[in-house]
Each structure stands twice: as structure tokens, then as C-alpha cells.
Batch of 4 targets.
Target 1
Amino acid sequence: MKSEKSNNKSLASFNRRQILAMGGAVGGGFALPQPGRGDEKLIVGQAEHVVSIWLGGGMGQIDTFDPKRKGDAKKKLAGAYYDSIETAVPGVQLCEHLPQLATLMDRVTAVRSVHHEMIDEHAAATNRMHTGRPISGTITYPSLGSIIAHERGATDESVPKYVLIGYPNVTRGPGFLGTRDSYLYLTDTNQGPAGLTRPDGITPQRQSRRKEFLAALKRNADPTIDQRLLDYDAAIEQSLKLSGPEFMGVFDLDREPADLRSRYGGEFGQRCLLSRRLIERGVSFIEVSHNLNFLNGIGWDVHNEGILNQYQLIRELDTAVATLLSDLEAKKMLEKTLVVITTEFGRPPEFDSGGGRGHQGTAFSCVLAGGGLSHCGAWGETDELAKKIVSNPVSVPDLFATICAAVGVDYRKNLYDGDRPVPITDRGNPIPKLFT
């Protein structure tokens, strides 16, 4: 009787999973109806790659992509820290320290109405902006990078699906999807990924003998169905592929023209250049971190006097991203590459006691560029101080759904943590204007 009850439970779980999976199926360009989703047509973009630029610390929207009236930190008059400039899109302005991007805003959309409920805590907000969900005590959610790696794979099997240029963190990881959808990471563009370069004493001949010995051990070992061991074997196999000269050559930036490297700028710019080279080799998702406290010593978390040198970060962002967009366009890759700029939250228009700014998650800006979208310079609107959203709010699930749709990932489907269905974007909806 106990066995029969267990079998019935398993069958019910299997049938439930089948039914839920059918809800994410696509036929003839349409998704089958799901509860609360209606019969609307599934949006499917044509991009193949994502370069996600992460501004750790909290980029202030009022001082960058959603400028408002000028304030005064000394007088504690709320407002922007800098003057505004016109852009290639009439009616859309940017901060004065983004002049290069201003000329390219017809290929860009500043999404000015992103919001979430995580305000004061960096780690929780970072998790929110990487996984699309609040932290849960019962489930470890995958990051957006791992989701896209899982759904799209790499366009070339000899390269990783997902590369992180920055420090590793669980919020960037695969969560319940498992290690197969994790990232390869590096922190120094001069060295490439740690662990993939052979020690000086390991010649190609020694490496070949080691591979033969490993293969012999595997042939004589008992078969296993332990997923952890299978994932480990897969990781070893991929690392052996990646450690060869063909893929490792991607990290040799000296192969690029000197004038182009110069246009990209410093270390952050070189990371953006490397992201373009990784895309050329077939990597699907690349995160480029700009949170290593370059230039101003504190990154984008501009409390108190930290705001004094914020303009240096903004200028570096402008130089690197504008060059990346122009470089991708020159190589006819921009339509196939979605460039995203995200951050954990924005900053309020008011100044703190030291003249800097606090945290604001209720209204802030993220940026989308390229990717075959119908760009409009800006989407969403905030009030006269970029403090409250007044039109077209975009939740984090909506932003994730827009990114997924752009690269042809079904934003309506379910992923599975065991038998538990997990909506891939927490039921987000893409920004419709960008796909018309």
C-alpha cells in the first residue's frame, strides 16, 4: 500500500510537471495560454548575445540617464549634481558627462522607471538585480546570466556559455540549475581566467599523457548516475577544451589595434573590449563589472564626499560603452548583441549630511542598447526630481522578460527546481514599445 501511494504521488507530480511545461510551449510564434497571461503573442527577438554591464554600488539616475533640474549639495537643495545635455533623440537628455553616449541614443533606451522594494541593503538589492527575485530561504534562484546560458547555450561548443569579468558571487551563479550553467570568470584582463593556463612545467606532451591516463581511469570505473560526479566530469572536459590556445587566444588583447584599445580606455574599457572578443567566439552572456573602486576609490556608492569624483566614473562609463557600441556596429554585431547596464538601485535627489546621496530603489534607471530593439532614447518617466515613477513603470521581472525576449528566450516558461515549477522571469512582461 505504501509503495502504491508513493507511485501515485510520483505520477501526479509527473503529470503536473507535464501540464505546466506545456504552458510554456511555443507553436507558430504563439505561446499556449497560461493563467493570467491571456492569449497574447509571444515576443521573440533576434539577438544572440548579451553584454551586461554591472555598476556595483548604485548608479544615481538623476546624475546620469535621468537628469533633472540642478541641485546644490552645499545648500541641501535637491536636484541633479551636473548640468544636462541634448542627445540624438529629441527631448531626451543625459548628464553632461555622457557626451559620447548622447550621440548614440537612437541606438539606446534608458529605462527610467525600473523599481523594486530593496532599498537600503546592497547585497539584497544585488541579488534582486541578478536573479530577478527577493532572497528565498527555500530556493536558490539562478542568475539572469545562468538562465540565458541554460536556455541558449553557446553558439560554439568550444567556448563557455557564460563569462563573468569580475569577482565571483553566488548572486551571479546558476542556483538550482546546477554547475553546467555557471560562469567562467576572470578578474584581470592581462591574465585571462585563473586555472586555465598550464604551469610552465606542463608541456603539451605531458598534458596529452595526463588526458590519456584520465580516459583510462574513466573507462575502468563503474558507471555512475550521481549528477554531481557527472557535472564534475563535464567541468573537467570543458576546462581541457578551454585551456587550449584557440580559446585562450581570446584574452590576448594585444592582437587588437592600439588605437582601438586606447579609445576603449582603462581597465573597465579593456573589459568591454574583451566582451566583444568573447562574443565573436560565441559566448552567449558576459557580465562586465565596474565595481572595483576604479578612479574615485569607492565605486558608485557615493555617500558623503564620495560624490565629488563621481564624474570620473561617469566619464569612464561613457567612453567605454560608447566605444563598445560603435565597435559592435562597425563589425555588424550590434543588432545581434544586447548591451545592458544595470545597478542595484538608484540614488535620491536629496543630499546627505556630507553632500552625497543615499539609496533609492523605488525609481531608478537601467539601460538597453542594440540587440535589434526599436530604441526610443528613453522609456518610462519619473517626476521632476526622479524620485517617483509617473508613467510606464518597469518591474525587475519586466526588465528580465525584455532581455529574455530580445535573445529569443521564452519569458513565460517554467524552470524546475526538482519538481517545483519556477516561472523563468517571475511572470514579467517585456516592454512592448521596444519590439514594434
Note: The mean pLDDT is 87.
Target 2
Amino acid sequence: MTIRKTIEDGVETFEAEIDGETIQWDRGLSYARHLQTQQLLTSQVPVSDKPDEMLFIIIHQTMELWIKLMLHEADIAMQQIRADQLGKAQKTLDRMATVLRHMIHSWEVLATLSPHDFLTFRGFLRKASGFQSHQYRELEFCLGLKRADLVMIHNDDDQKRLALEAALHAPSLYDELLRLLSRRGFDIPEGHLDRDFSQPYQADEMVEDAWLEIYTNVDKHWDLYSLAEKVTALEYYFQEWRFKHMKTVSRVIGHKPGTGGSSGVTYLVKALELQFFPELWAMRTRMNAPKQGGNYAEDAATNAGEAQPKGCPYD
């Protein structure tokens, strides 16, 4: 095989014919340098000699990578909403929902870990726990679930704690949505627009009324309605992710306490009650379908009479 060498833009470049294809590479940016594969593939460091620990590590590392992307996309979506670029925001939210669907299926891989498999190395984990994932907590804060007491878990890492505190005090995705509704003329309480964003969000009937107006008059408010459905899908899939997490943990360890001291499955069940966008869900109960169609009872009686054969003894 002949390798041809040239210089392009001051970089030594190579070219060769392989399987009928002209393949090129150079001494500049390579696949490995771009993706940092050396660093990535040496980041799996088991603390035991048990073979199933590798699966456990890789699944959680990939989850962290997807959460990193979720945070990246959420920041873009909020910028787009602030700029009233709702079409672009919908596309970004679609991507986030797709990432969540992928994360949901990831639990199925971890569920191949049997209770026996996990117990071979669980004791080596000591107090290490997914409860300590600062990215997951930051994502919750970003979407609107603010719980200041959870920041203290990261007091051993100043950089992570500062990032969490910044997310805690910043407006969430839902806060940006309410500001958008206010700009569009909806009556959103001032206390929901300019508040201490580090405090848990409190649902309000006026906010629910605004969403109800949008969902009742979808043609008039189509861009807000379609954006709201994208946001609702985000929580829908997030809750499905939480549910699959809970069921996977239940399948692998039953109702044992978590390694980080939580109640394990019981804690994960409680998390299913937590909401990011409460009025968007509560409003649905108040929606009513208009009465349409005829009097089905009279129609049924008429049709029964017409279907009765002539000469019937009941005439």
C-alpha cells in the first residue's frame, strides 16, 4: 500500500487507497484528539476486581455525558425563549426530549445486572452514590425544581458547589416561560417574575389561568401552545426516566438503603411526585370538551326501529 504525503496549510497530510476508497488524515486534528478518546477510555477505574463493575461505571458515565448535553441544550433553549425565538426553542426542546428517551432505554442495559452481580462489588462503593451527582442536581435546578439544602452535599468541591449555587439562584426554564407569557400580555403575578429564584416555586391560580387560556384558544396562541407541549413532553420523559431508574434499582437491590444513605427505592418513589411545571399539568383537569353530536339515545331508538324486520310479532 502506498501512502502519499503532502503539506496542506502547513500540516503534513497523508492519503492512501484502502478498499477502493481514498482515505486522508494528517498530523493536525484527528478523531482521537477531537474526542479526547485517550482520556475518555482511561476514565473507567474500577475499585474492585469484579467484572460487572465495568458495566456499572460505563452506564453512569454515559448518563453524566447525556446530562451534560441536557444542561447545554437547556441553556440554549432559555436564551432562545428570552429572545422570543420560539421556533428555535421548540427544536432545542425536541432534542432534549430525544436525549431523555435515549437515557430511559439506558436503564435496560443496567438492568442486566442481577442482584448477585451487583452485590459482588457493591461493598467496594462505600458511600459513593448517584445522589451525589452534581450535574443531575443542576439539571433539576435548571428545569425549575429548586432545593437549596441539597447543595451542601457538594461542600467538598468548591467548583461544583459554586456551579450549583449559580444554578440555584438563576431563573429556571419555567421562570423564563412565565416571563414570556408576561411579555405576551398574560396576567402573571409580579411575585413570580421578580423573586428569589433559589426558593421552591409555588404554583399559582393566575398562572394556571394563563395556560388554560392558551390551551383553550390554540389557534390564537399557537406558538405558545406548541412550545408548552414541547415543555410538557420534557417533564413527561423526565418522569419516565425517574420511573425506570426506580424500577431498575428495585430489580437490582430491592428495598435496601442506598449507598449514600437514602432510603433507596422509597426515596425514588417520592421523587416521582416532584414537578417542574405544575400549572401546565393542573390546567388539564380544568379543560372541558364542548358538547357535540346529536342525541345518541334518540338516534339509537330510531335506528333500532328501522332495523326491525316487517312481520315481527312485536309490531
Note: The domain at 54-286 is CATH 1.20.58.480 (Methane Monooxygenase Hydroxylase; Chain G, domain 1).
Target 3
Amino acid sequence: MRKPFAARAKWLGLFALCAATLAAARGAEVGWPEKDELRLGFIKLTDMAPLAIAYEKGFFEDEGLYVTLEAQANWKVLLDGVIDGRLDGAQMLAGQPLAATIGFGTEAEIIVPLSLDLNGNAITVANEVWAMMKPHVPAGPDGRPQHPIGAQALKPVVEHFKAEGRPFRMGMVFPVSTHNYELRYWLAAGGLHPGYYAPHKGEVSGTIGADVLLSVTPPPQMPATLEAGTIHGYCVGEPWNQQAVFKGIGVPVITDYEIWKNNPEKVFGLRRDFAERYPNTTVRLVKALLRAAKWLDDPANRREAVRILARPEYVGADEEVIANSMTGSFEYEKGDVRPVPDFNVFFRYHATYPYYSDAIWYLTQMRRWGQIPEPKPDAWYLEVARKVYRPDLYRRAAEALIAGGAMSADDFPDFARETGFRPPQAEFIDGIPYDGRRPNDYLRRLAIGLKDEVL
């Protein structure tokens, strides 16, 4: 990895020689960073890529920031590190800042100045389970399974397990993870109940009334836990679905792109008081990550990104495994490789913009499964979203990049017209449309899940 203090000395020398030129190129209107030595956390997943690329390509240094990237053991350790100040910011599950703000789990004020990516997850089942599912999956003209594969094909398997007195268990990475909500969405769309939480009653396992028992497993441990038979399937980000194929222990049956097309995935999170104390540092962090995201979505750069991510300090998986998804294809059954060009999106489709409607979707899922115990008015959802998602900071960074010539106005939403809400989205596996302005109407349309009742 780069040597931050050696890089700092080199940069300071350049600054002494040509300060005026550098200031213009970097957007002097932002102001120099109040804090320049930073520690940022991440989990070993391919969607930590914007942090790795911002580091390796010198985008952090271009902003006068000297960053150390630190892999974390799990999502709780990562969140605790940001809260207690050990970390200045981190790649986060989109649900983490929202849950912390409303007090589900650890309570803290975490903000999100940009999203890191779209899509990137899949649901994998053990070979035994796939063999039982496959007769219930229609075949396409070429004889291969027809995608997307709904959880309707899993339902008879779960019923078989029940008849034998065996619980059916699946793993996800954290109670407020995208993976938890995507897995639950897929199961419920297929008529399987994933269980309720009841935090006001001390029930935080999320298994009340469950047909399928979901539990937490850290991402890198998913394949080994599946192989050991502790779980029968899981939802996780890459490369840990493709690793199951590579090892011959499981079959990814559906990607999250097929559950919800271009769904928001990870975010960059930091404490509210950090952003208030170090506003220039915060905006400069966003600038560096925006440049990295755009670099990543140039197809010519993906192979280089794969080589970087394969290093042990980042993801630490085989290049072949990481490349399976990062280069526009995805392998389901061994040898069944299909094009999925948008499996990993880092910048296209305004992937980095912190939309209020994205935040509200996560809040609806927290409510749907009982993590928010009581019904809330629509205005409450928007109020929470505005506390956490900060398009104002995003806009400052984007405008500085445009002014400095590093990026163009065409790279970003039309800020003059931007409301913070995506248009209503209907490309979900169950076909139920979602409008972030009407969260309660959305909840009432979902067949399984809480609406106006309290458990």
C-alpha cells in the first residue's frame, strides 16, 4: 500500500513550488482540509472498491488527505469504530446510519454524503438445496434454468425440511443490511415468511413466525459456514457468492439486480459532528470518492480494479473469482455464465447521489419486519431521511469537481431540479411499485409484513 507520510512529504514539496496552480486545479472554493490524516474502515467486499481506488490512484492525496484504509472484522466493529472515533469514516451498509439515527441497535448520529454503488449482491443456496429446487424452476429454450428464480421454487424445499423436523436456515450479514432486506423481500415475494423483530419486547433475532430462520454471518465466512452445513443458503456481496461456485459448494440462484433493478447498496458514512467540525475535509473526501466511482465505471479500468481488489489488504480473493462479477458477467451453476453488465455499478445511473427515496425504502423494510415497532406517518420517514442523507454535501463536492475541470455537469443530476426522490420504481421481482413519497401506501401493498399493526 502507499506510504502516507512519504506521499505527504512529496505533496508538500509540490505545494511549495506551485501552490497557486494546485489550488485552482483542486477547487480552492472548498478550502483546505481541517484534518488531513484520516482512518477509513471497510469490509472485504468488492464494493469497497471506491475507497481502494481513491487511495491507489492518488485521489485522496489530490485533496490533501492522507488516508489509511483498515479492514474491519464485521459490520458491528466497523460501526463502533466510527462512533467511538477510532475511524473517521467508513464504507457502511445503507441501513446502518438510518438504524443508528432512529436508535435501533447502537444509537448515534451518522450521516451519508454519498452512496457507493448499486447492486452487487446475490442469494446462494447449498448444492443439496439447489438439487431440490431445480425441478420447480422452469427451463428456458436452451435447457438452462430460467431467470429470475423466485422463492416459489424454494417453498417446497422448506416444507420438506419442516416435514422432517429440520429448521431451514439462511445467513445474512447484519440485521440492518441490504442483504437482510433483499433476502426477506425475495422470500416474502415467494410466499415464505422470514420472521418479525419485536425490539420493544426484547425480541431482536427476527424469527417470530418465520418459515426460514435468518442469522448473521460475516461475509468472508459465508462459504465456510455453508460448507459446514450450519446454514442452507445466504445473501451476501461479492466475491462470496462466486466463491461458492468456485469451490463447488453452492449455487447462486438470483442476484439483487433481479430482485430490485439498480438497488442502492453501500454508502459512505461518518459522524455528524465530524462533518460539522471538518466541513472541508468531508467535502474533499466526497470529491475523491466521486472520482474513484467514475474511474471504476469505465470498462477499460475494471481489469485493473480486479487486480487491486485481489490484494490481501483489500478483498483478498482470487482474481478469477472477483472478475466473475466485476467484469460484467455472473456464474450461477458451474459453467452457467451469463452477462450481467450492471451487476456492479459505481457511478452510472447517478449511483452516488444520496437520494431520500433510497433511505426511505430501507426505513419501510425496517418497519415491515418490526425493527420499527409502531406505524409512522409519511412525514416521519422523510424527516429521518433528511437527517441522515446529505445531498447538500454531495452537491458542494460535485460543483467543486466541475469548477476544477475534473468532471463535467453531465456527470451529475440537474441540481436545480433535483428533489431527492427517484421517480416511482416498479422493477421489483414481485412487480409492486415503490414511491418514496408514499411509504405507507407501499407497505400496505406488500402481502407479507407489518402495515398499521403492532406485534
Note: The radius of gyration is 22 Å.
Target 4
Amino acid sequence: MDFLQNLVIPATTQHLLMIKVILGLAMIIFLPFFGMLLGGTAFSVIFNSYGRKHRNQMFIRFAKDIIDKLAINRFVGVGLGVIPLLSITFCYAQLLFGQSVISISLLLVATLLLTIAVSFVYSYQSTFQIESLIETFKDISGLDKHELETKVPEEVSDYEFDLLNTNSNAGLWGLVLLIITALFFAGGTSIALNSDRYQDFQNIAQMFLSGSTFINFLMLIVFSVTASGVAILFFFFGWQGGMHDMEKEYADFARNIGGKIAFTGAALLPVFLFMSFFFIPNVALSGSVFVFTGLAFIALLMLCNFVYAVIRNSDTKYIAAAFYVFMLSAIFLVLKNDSAFGIAVQKNLIVTNQKALELEAQKKSKTVNVSGVNGEEIYNRLCVACHKFDVKLVGPPYQQTIPTYNGDVKKLSSYILNPVKKNPEYPPMPAQPLKPKEADAVAQYLIEKVSGKK
């Protein structure tokens, strides 16, 4: 996975600031959606399994509605899940430039796992839609239950049986891969905070021995429970007026279950936030980390109150407020983590900025403004009598000497203006009657000619 290091270059302070902003925005997009996707898939699989086992259509319908509303569609899964996580991975690679740490590899594995998980989740989602079409076909056929069992073609029955197996397997595999994705994501981001112990984390086995990884993984699971519960309430009852095809019994069922899921997660999340705070290494602590932790804690307490009001009063008027407060708490959690990470890698960012400035200076030294001056004409007028590119004349061939300047136009130009005897096999080169810009032009021509650019 070290190939990522070849895709990033040292960045200046301005570019590093922009990368931090991109990282924050990608996290704000990724975490809530991933939480909804993980929690939604988990609860959909659970209710679907229970409903089919006990032949309870309400549970099966609820499982279908959860995955439809929370996963949305395949394009959203890629746009709000895979792409932001890939952006997060490259931002970490850029901010950890030059560091030997496993975080980037873990985040890259998480991205690959999420990509596979998304395909399973949306395969699981599509089986519900196909199953609905089959049920519609049975309804419009006008056949009663006994006739359906005897008159429906065997191919349709076999396809329905295979569909149920695909539904179960795809959902379960999607859920397992999402959980593993959460583990690798928690490991990558947690280890990145330990900038004074990067040498202790060089393989995946060491990730499982990290207490901060374990606590942050559990916190991410609880966050997903909260996200899915709040999202069930919001998309079932709040978004665009809610679902309009719900009977009162089903609406009460969905509100009760969604409210309990949301309240359980919202009540547990402050506990894990408090625990995770103590696993932040001292090197990553700052005043902003304390502030954002406090703000996230307050937002989560407000979320508990709003969700409790929904459960107690069976009233949907607090659902929108609960959703927006949840998103606010997610933003504070992201800002807390980004602040801690920024402090942890501050020394590395200073070194990275210095390397970027040195690289920029080297690039400037290798480029000059020679507009209006023809280097080839100067070469043909002054240099060709003593030098050729591949043949020894009075002076050495350019194919032998020019590469020693490593593309540095200014260095070669300075030698042309003030030559110094270097090789005892050749006579000293006389100073040339050239202006600095003319020397730059002929130097650039020689370098480009030897390098094959001309």
C-alpha cells in the first residue's frame, strides 16, 4: 500500500489548510451517511429475518422501508460513502506525508471493503423491489392461495425461492463488510492521532491491540445506531411530509421502534464520547478539542430530549429538530477529531511545508524567462566550434557534461558566464560575451536538447 506515498507530494501551508478543509467536509458527509447505511442495514436484516421466520409481514415491510429510505440508491451510496472515504484516505496520506504509519493502508482497505459492501447492500435492497413485483403479479392474477401453489409456473416459484436466499445472503454479507469497514476506519483514524508512537503501529495485528481503536470502533457502532434511529424517524415522518401510505398501526409501530433505537443510541453516545476522550493521546490535546467535545456532548443531550419527547408524546413535531441536532452533533464530533489530528501532526506539517518550499525553490531554479532570445542561434554562433553533443572536439561532448547539472538552468548559465577549468584533459573554456539572459537561453537550450525535449 506504500504506492499512495508516490501519489502525494509535500504541500505548502496554504495547500495543507485547504486539505484540512476538504478532510473536514468529507468527514461531515461520510460519517452520517455511513452511520445510516450501517445501522439501517443491520436493523433491516434483523427485522427481515424475524419477519420471515415468524411470517410477520409488518416486520418484513419495515425492513424493506428501512433499507429503501436509509440506503436510498446505489449512486448515493457511492457519492456519499465511497467517494468521501476515498477523499479522506488521500487527505490523510497528504497530511501524513513522509511518515511510516499503517493508518493510510487501513483507510485504503476500509475504502475497498466499503465498495464491496455497497454492492451487497444494494443487491439486498433490489431483492425487496423484485419481490414486490412478484407479489403484485400474484395479486392481479386473481388466484387464491391454493391456486397460486398449484398454478404458478415452477420457474416463478424457483426464482422466488432463490430470491429469498439472495436477499438473506446479500444483506448479511453487506452488514458484515460494513462492520469490518467500521473497524478499519476506526483503526486508521485512531492510530493517526498517536504521532509519537507511529513506530509501534506497523501491521494490522497491532491495530487490534490498540485500546483507542476498540473504543472508537464501539463509538462508531453506537453512532450508527443513533444515526439509523433518527433517520428512520425523519425519513418516515419528517422528510417531505413523511410516507403517505402508512396505516395508523404501521405508523405507530415505525415511530415506536425508530424512537427506541434513536433514544438508545443517543443515550449511549455521550458515554462513549466521554470514554473516547480519555484515549486521545496528550500530543493531540488542545483547547479546541475540549470545546468541540463539550459542544458535541450538549448537542447529544438535546437529541435525547427531543427523541424522548417523540416517544413519550407519540408526536412527530420534534422529529425534524432531532434530525438537525443529530447532524449538529456529528459536525462537532468531526471538528473534535479533526482538531485532535491537526495538533497531533503539527510537527510533521511544519517539516512537510519546509520540504514543499525547498521543492518549489528547486523548480524555480530550473526554469528561467528567456522570451525574445534564441538559445539555439547562440549555440550555433558561439559554441558549435568547440562543442558537439555526442562528439569530442576542443571541449567535451555535451551528452557527457550537461547531465551533471541535473536540469539546473541557472547553475549552467552561471558556468557559461564565469567558466572554471574542471577537466585537465581539455583546455580552459574562455568567458563568453553574453548577457545573463542570453546565457540562460543557451543553457536552457542545451539542457532541453540533451534531455530530448527538443
Note: Residues 2-356 form one domain.
